Amino acid sequence: MGARMSRREFAGRSAAGLLGATGWRWATDDGRLRARPRRPTATVVPGEHALELAGGRDGLLYVPASYRPDRAAPLVLALHGATGNGLRQLGGWRAAAEAHGFIVVAPDSRGGTWDAVRGGFGPDVTFIDSALASVFRRCHVDATRMIIAGFSDGASYALTLGLINGDLFQKVVAYSPGFIVPGEWTGQPKLFLSHGRADPILPIDQASRRLVVLLRRGGYSVTYREFDGGHEVPEAIRSEAVEWMLTS
Question: What is the domain count for the chain?
Answer without folding.
Answer: 1
